[in-house]
Amino acid sequence: MSKLYIVPTPIGNLEDMTFRAIKVLKEVDCILAEDTRNSGKLLKHFDIGTPMQSHHMHNEHKTVETLVKRMQAGETIALISDAGTPAISDPGFLLTRACVENGIAVECLPGATAFVPALVNSGLPNDKFVFEGFLPDKKGRQTRFLALAEETRTIILYVSPHKLVKTLAEFVRYFGADRHVTVSRELSKLHEETVRGTAEEVLKHFESKPPKGEIVVCVAGKSK
């Protein structure tokens, strides 16, 4: 029976791969991968020989219709990203929506995603939060910061290493120097690190120690 499986993959530590994820990836007809070279290493590690096809932000608009037709014809397909859960700041939404609109079953497996451990170990309130993903680079960035300055829930952001210091400086400007911030880096990997403090303190830390690796930032919401 045709189905789209959304399959999370480890964000760093390969031991976070689930038994069920391995089973599904071995049984489907095709695996859609953001980067087939990167995912090839993962599949080889777990002895998964299923054929792969490239599916990324630059081609997903063109391939969705064909993929839907293949599943309507009876194929089962799994979607993976380079790391974490597909469609969370990664390709996946367009295909999932198309499957839902066409009556094709969609099943997302539970598994690794970077923002959940970052939020939980931040020490900030996590009963209510807002996930912002990556902020706009230029157009709309200031507008977004002005809106987030009034947000009372914990804010979660993905930030690239070379933009972290700039982003922390913007926190000081828009949120205030005393707003509490945590920066989680290289989650689940050998050099995992979480730096906690005020926006000003965390900014000074990374000004003296340039960051490397994958980064998730959590910001305390505005006090009521």
Radius of gyration (CA) equals 19 Å
Helical/strand content category: alpha/beta
What's the N-to-C terminus distance?
A: 51 Å
Strand and helix order: EHEHEHEHEHEHEHEEHE
Tell me the number of strands.
10
Poorly predicted runs are none
What gross morphology would you assign?
Answer: elongated
Average pLDDT value?
95
Give helix % range. Answer: 25-40%
Strand arrangement within the widest β-sheet reads 3-2-4-1-5
Description:
Helix content is 34%, strand content 21%. Helix 7 (164-175) runs antiparallel to helix 8 (199-208). Strands 3-2-4-1-5 form a five-stranded parallel β-sheet, sandwiched between helices. It has helices spanning 19-27, 36-45, 60-72, 93-101, 115-120, 141-148, 164-175, 199-208; strands spanning 3-6, 30-33, 52-54, 76-80, 105-108, 129-133, 154-158, 180-185, 193-198, 215-219. The radius of gyration is 19 Å and the shape is elongated. The chain starts with a strand and ends in a 5-residue tail after the last strand.
